[in-house]
Amino acid sequence: ERTLAKVLTLVEHNMMGFAFWDEAQKREELAHPDTRLLLRSSGSDLHAFVAYRIEHEETVKVAYVYELQVAEAARGAGWGSRLLEEVERLGREAGARGIMLTVHRKNHRAIQFYTNRQGFEISPISPSRCAPPHLLRTCDYEVMQLFWEAEAEQTLLERGAAARRELYIEAMDEGKFRIRLTMSTRGAPARRGQQR
Question: What predicted TM-score, i.e. pTM, was given to this entire model?
Answer without folding.
Answer: 0.83
